[in-house]
């Protein structure tokens, strides 16, 4: 198998849990009009079509800011901003209608392409658009009449779900109509938030301009809880960055019942696929609460634990455990679960009629080493052992003695093990024994 084919096969194998997890889910995608002005639209639509083909229910909300500005400039008109909000007069609204209609038609054309030897070859994809968004005027605020600038009043979720049930990709316009027939200029991102909240979407994805969020060391921030996101929204913190405006909307979406909001750099080719089908993604995930959990294992985790420990059993690092043995011991295990996948595990086996317990099978997936998960697991086991009245821990290891010594364990002779454990000591493995008092 050549390197490129091997990489492809490996990617498919690692992405298969995500493919199964996403099938049948509803995702709302917000993308700015810049995607249609910089030659990236075809690649983006191909990726969205692939998601649809994998059974994901898609609602796409395209913006049209650069297209509107181009038409305004050509007409010699402007959209005035007051207190950060647009004031849309009649001339500007005409440009908005023209630009939004143009963007919609262009996207429909791209979704309809089925040329041979292209990523869309043989694809017949329905695109549905219509009067799904009911708007109302912003009205007069602080003495300013915002004219034809509006806000979302209602999303027709029933009609959208019907189109999604038919297998269509739904396009929502940043142009809404009131019950009286008036048209209003809306922020596309606000339409996306309203749609995600109304549909109780599984994910809301913002493709933002510019760079993403980075920490003080320049490292990309992979995830934030809503509470952590609020710190980024403090005045003066990256105030001019496009991603900050989307972060505020992400918080609003989470508070409205959306479980996952993803902030992705629009200019990065394949950002959506990289985010949805890899363990760590390429952007920033915002959630109501941390989506990585440290918890007691259950029988539903057995397959995940077996898959995690199998490579280490194969190379002799761990003693083999059958499924039957794991089923009887599953109550001793603690796991780290990330997006429904077990990425780390460890077991605490109490030794009957002693004040000791054994730490065993502490494993962290290779993709997640270096994130302190091993230490977190060990601290959890130590706390559990203390709560159960145990006064010391021991561990048998062939390759990780130095790591355990860094965590406070010290070498000990085999005869320091409780007698019942000594009886099962495997002389052939010559495991090193380490112990740690915790009383």
Automatic annotation (TrEMBL):
CDD domains: AAK_NAGS-ABP, NAT_SF. Residues 292-439 form the N-acetyltransferase domain. Keywords: Acyltransferase, Amino-acid biosynthesis, Arginine biosynthesis, Cytoplasm, Transferase. It is found in: Cytoplasm. Its main location: cytoplasm. It holds the Pfam family Acetyltransf_7. It catalyses: L-glutamate + acetyl-CoA = N-acetyl-L-glutamate + CoA + H(+). It is an enzyme of class 2 (transferase). Pathway: Amino-acid biosynthesis; L-arginine biosynthesis; N(2)-acetyl-L-ornithine from L-glutamate: step 1/4. Signal peptide: none annotated. GO terms for molecular function: acyltransferase activity. Belongs to the acetyltransferase family. ArgA subfamily. HAMAP family: N_acetyl_glu_synth. In bacteria which possess the bifunctional enzyme ornithine acetyltransferase/N-acetylglutamate synthase (ArgJ), ArgA fulfills an anaplerotic role. This is Amino-acid acetyltransferase. It comes from Spiribacter insolitus.
């Amino acid at each position: 198998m050549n390197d490129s084919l091997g990489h492809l096969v490996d990617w498919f194998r690692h992405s298969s849990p995500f493919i199964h997890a996403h099938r049948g889910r509803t995702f709302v995608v917000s993308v700015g009009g810049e995607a249609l002005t910089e030659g990236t639209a075809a690649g983006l639509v191909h990726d969205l079509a692939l998601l649809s083909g994998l059974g994901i229910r898609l609602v796409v909300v395209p913006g049209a800011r650069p297209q509107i500005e181009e038409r305004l400039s050509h007409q010699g008109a402007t959209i005035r901003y007051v207190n950060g909000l647009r004031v849309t007069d009649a001339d500007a609204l005409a440009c908005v209608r023209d630009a939004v209609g143009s963007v919609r038609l262009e996207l429909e054309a791209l979704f309809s392409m089925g040329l041979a030897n292209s990523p869309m070859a043989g694809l017949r994809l329905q695109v549905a658009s219509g009067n799904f968004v009911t708007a109302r005027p912003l009205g007069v605020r602080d003495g300013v009449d915002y004219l034809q600038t509006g806000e979302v009043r209602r999303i027709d979720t029933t009609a959208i779900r019907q189109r999604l049930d038919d297998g269509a990709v739904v396009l929502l316009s940043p142009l809404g109509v009131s019950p009286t027939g008036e048209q209003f200029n809306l922020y596309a991102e606000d339409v996306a938030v309203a749609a995600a909240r109304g549909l109780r979407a599984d994910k809301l994805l913002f493709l933002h301009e510019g760079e993403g969020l980075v920490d003080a060391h320049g490292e990309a921030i992979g995830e934030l809880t809503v509470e952590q996101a609020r710190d980024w929204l403090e005045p003066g913190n990256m105030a001019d960055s496009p991603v900050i405006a989307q972060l505020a909307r992400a918080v609003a979406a989470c508070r409205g019942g959306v479980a996952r909001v993803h902030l992705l750099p629009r200019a990065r080719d394949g950002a959506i696929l990289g985010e949805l089908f890899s363990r760590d993604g390429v952007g920033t995930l915002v959630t109501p609460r941390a989506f990585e959990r440290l918890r007691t294992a259950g029988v539903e985790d057995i397959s995940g634990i077996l898959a995690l420990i199998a490579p280490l059993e194969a190379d002799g690092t761990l003693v083999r455990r059958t499924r039957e043995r794991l089923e009887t011991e599953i109550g001793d295990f603690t796991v780290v679960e990330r997006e429904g996948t077990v990425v780390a595990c460890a077991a605490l086996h109490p030794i009957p009629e002693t004040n000791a317990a054994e730490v065993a099978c502490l494993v962290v997936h290779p993709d997640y080493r270096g994130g302190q998960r091993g230490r977190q697991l060990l601290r959890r086991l130590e706390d559990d052992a203390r709560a159960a009245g145990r006064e010391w821990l021991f561990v048998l290891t062939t390759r990780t003695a130095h790591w355990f010594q860094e965590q406070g364990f010290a070498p000990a002779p085999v005869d320091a093990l409780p007698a019942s454990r000594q009886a099962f000591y495997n002389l052939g493995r010559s495991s090193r024994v380490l112990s740690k008092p915790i009383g």
